[in-house]
Write a structure and sequence with these properties.
The chain is α/β, with parallel strands linked by helices. The protein has three domains: 150 residues, Substrate Binding Domain Of Dnak, Chain:A, Domain 2, CATH 1.20.1270.30; 148 residues, Rossmann fold (3-Layer(aba) Sandwich), CATH 3.40.50.2030; 235 residues, Rossmann fold, CATH 3.40.50.2030. The protein has 26 helices and 16 strands. The strands form four sheets. A six-stranded parallel beta sheet has the order 6-5-4-7-8-9. Strands 13-12-11-14-15-16 form a six-stranded parallel beta sheet, sandwiched between helices. The longest helix is centred in the N-terminal third of the chain and has 35 residues. The protein is globular, with a radius of gyration of 24 Å. It starts with a helix and ends with a helix. The structure holds FE(4)-NI(1)-S(5) cluster (NFS). Pfam families: Prismane. Its cofactor is [4Fe-4S] cluster. It is an enzyme of class 1 (oxidoreductase).
């Protein structure tokens, strides 16, 4: 599709990445500062030139500040996601928004976890109490965030509390981070790095855990489901609507209204309405509804280049403004839906939970009308979509393993880890990045780990890569080492499938709460900290600040995290050493504080080798 775009003179992110050529050396090293009007200042790392900015900040301070700035963006994005969902749950419970609570069991489980009274209360009363407790995580001024009290692993909590980095409420911590980062604020690079860890925890709990829990309550906890992946999921004969972004509040409604208005599609000569997913809104819908996925982040513009897309509906995050320029070459209507995320030239249909039905209906009707404007000569849809299985929430996994050990569903997994059937667990997470060859890093790391019997769980755009390359269906089993392969086959039979797929799709990026819930539960069974487990995270094709905050949240629990793209901290030896150094190294390191560190390696084969080394090191320390 990229060559189709180029042959038609349509520019995409891949072309713009080429035009960008070499990266700015100052920005790449994290040593440029635009925090005040004394500057902009820049420091020549390890060279001749100014060693300090006008205010006296040195490279260590600038790099730590610049990293914290990135972390603020990541944490804010996920915290805002959590808050939006909490508001929708509240309005639903009050009868003001047209949603229903689909998973009452999860609602009760979350309410009990939050120590809320459920005896004698109606479903809506409990839902309201859960929503208000969630919203407190954006309001309270003392104590610890409710979701950390509920979901945070006790042994990790002790470390955070001792360091004084446990968040109180998301907005307070974000505001504090912005202030400490401003000119004349925090100048201590190590203190700033601890501030970054707090952002990781804000992201992890008010963002990831809170969002996953509340979305499961509203839309159902994912169960094994089949879907198809690739641009080939667009249907030439149908009205195609792509839903793109992150929060599933509107897109769930669009799926509902596409079903209700299917008959109207027939009146304009289409054979139905086909909803396809992009990025994490795509992941949300495929996990719960089996909606087919068209594209990850990097190639989002190429969905439009098929010429068969009536509308691309976007909510928040990871939306390239470039989609509008591409859409102008076709009949595709870009529809923004959030008041704080607009694109010049796009149509705006405002979304509020109260009016979700009206917005979804209008969007589907607009798409139906757009079908008549489609130019059949421009339609090029690739063939050959790939089948994939998804929906592996912790609940779904435990349902499968519970068929082997009803009393303790985690035991079969723990036994497999102990006896080496599973050498370790890796979460393959994060993005695709137009500056990198798409999917290659994600797939290579996964294949290298699978052949060494590492169990892969996956989320976000990395999951798109693995699905596209066949690692979420039976055929992908050839990638696994022998012991992992037979375990997956054995477990698959208990799930009513021929096998579990080699890569277990756990959902969107906010669903990175799920791998940590799994690890926390295993750690509890073994009575060890999460940091002792032979578990790693890998984000080979990083692009988003959100990926860095998610990685930081893993590291705060003592899980090593690999990134394949330069995190722009090389301008400070101190910062680099603190993030990437080992516990044996001199000075303070993340590994020493939390038991997990950052691994920066752009070669995916080498990265996998390092991850295996770290897995083996943790196995040895555990005595298994
Ligand atoms: Ni995660 Fe999901 Fe994709 Fe990266 Fe963007 S869509 S939230 S940030 S690019 S994985």
């Amino acid at each position: 599709m990229l060559s189709v775009a180029r042959s038609r003179g349509i520019e995409t992110a891949f072309d713009r990445a080429d035009q960008m050529a070499a990266r700015c050396p100052f920005g790449s090293a994290g040593v440029c500062c635009r925090s005040c009007l004394e500057g902009p200042c820049r420091i020549v790392p390890n060279g001749n030139g100014p060693r300090r900015g006008v205010c006296g900040s040195n490279a260590d301070t600038l790099v730590a500040r610049s990293l914290l700035n990135t972390m603020i963006q990541g944490a804010s994005g996920h915290a805002e996601h959590g808050r939006e969902v909490a508001m929708a749950l509240l309005k639903t419970a009050e009868g003001k928004a047209p949603y229903v609570i689909r998973d009452v069991g999860k609602l009760m489980q979350v309410a009990e976890g939050l120590n809320l009274e459920i005896e004698g209360k109606s479903i809506n009363e409990v839902a309201k109490a859960v929503a208000l407790t969630a919203l407190e995580d954006f309001q309270k001024h003392e104590g610890t965030m409710n979701w950390i009290e509920y979901r945070g692993h006790k042994k990790s909590r002790e470390i955070w509390d001792k360091l004084g980095i446990t968040p109180v409420n998301a907005h307070l911590e974000i505001a504090k981070a912005v202030t400490r980062n401003a000119m004349g604020g925090d100048a201590d690079p190590l203190n700033l790095l601890l501030g970054s860890v707090t952002m990781g925890l804000v992201d992890g709990y008010s963002g990831l855990h809170l969002s996953s829990d509340l979305q499961d309550i509203l839309f159902g906890t994912p169960k094994a489901v089949k879907f198809n992946y690739s641009l080939a999921v667009l249907n030439e004969k149908q009205i195609n609507i792509a839903v793109h972004g992150h929060i599933p509040l509107l897109s769930e409604k669009i799926v509902e209204w596409a079903r209700i208005l299917e008959h109207k599609a027939l009146t304009v000569g289409a054979e139905g309405i086909n909803i396809v997913g992009v990025c994490c809104t795509g992941n949300e819908l495929l996990m719960r509804q089996g909606v087919h996925a068209a594209s990850s982040f990097s190639s989002q513009e190429l969905v439009i280049v098929t010429g068969a897309l009536e509308a691309m509906v976007v909510d928040i995050q990871c939306i390239m403004p470039g989609i509008q320029q591409v859409a102008e070459c076709f009949h595709t209507e870009i529809i923004t839906t959030m008041p704080h995320v607009k694109i010049p030239g796009a149509t705006h249909v405002n979304f509020e939970p109260e009016y979700a039905d009206e917005a979804a209906r209008e969007i589907v009707e607009r798409s139906i009308r757009n079908f008549a404007k489609r130019d059949p000569i421009k339609v090029v849809i690739p063939t050959g979509s790939v089948e994939a299985y998804a929906g592996f929430s912790v609940e779904q996994l435990c349902e499968v393993t519970g068929k082997i050990n009803e009393k303790n569903p985690l035991q079969p997994l723990i036994d497999a880890i102990k006896d080496g059937t599973i050498r370790g667990v890796a979460a393959l997470i994060g993005c695709t990045n137009p500056r990198e060859p798409q999917d290659i890093g994600n797939v290579t790391v996964a294949r290298e780990l699978l052949k060494n019997n590492v169990l892969i769980v996956t989320t976000g755009c990395a999951a798109h890569s693995l699905a596209k390359y066949g690692l979420m269906n039976e055929g992908g089993l050839e990638a696994c080492g022998d012991s992992l392969k037979s375990l997956l086959q054995q477990l698959g039979q208990h799930a009513g499938l021929s096998t579990l797929p080699p890569a277990l799709h756990m959902g969107s990026c906010v669903d990175n709460s799920r791998p940590l819930d799994l690890l926390s539960a295993i750690a509890d069974e073994l009575n060890v900290p999460v940091s002792s487990l032979p578990a790693v995270g890998s984000c080979p094709e990083t692009h988003s600040p959100k990926a860095l905050t998610i990685g930081t949240y893993f590291i705060a629990h003592g899980v090593d995290v690999h990134v394949g793209v330069d995190p722009q901290v090389s301008g400070s030896n101190l910062v680099t050493r603190t993030l990437t150094g080992s516990r044996e190294d001199k000075g303070i390191t993340m590994d020493g504080l939390f038991g997990g560190k950052l691994i920066v390696e752009s070669d995916p084969v080498k990265a996998a080798a390092i991850l295996l080394e770290r897995i083996d090191m943790k196995r040895e320390a555990l005595g298994i």
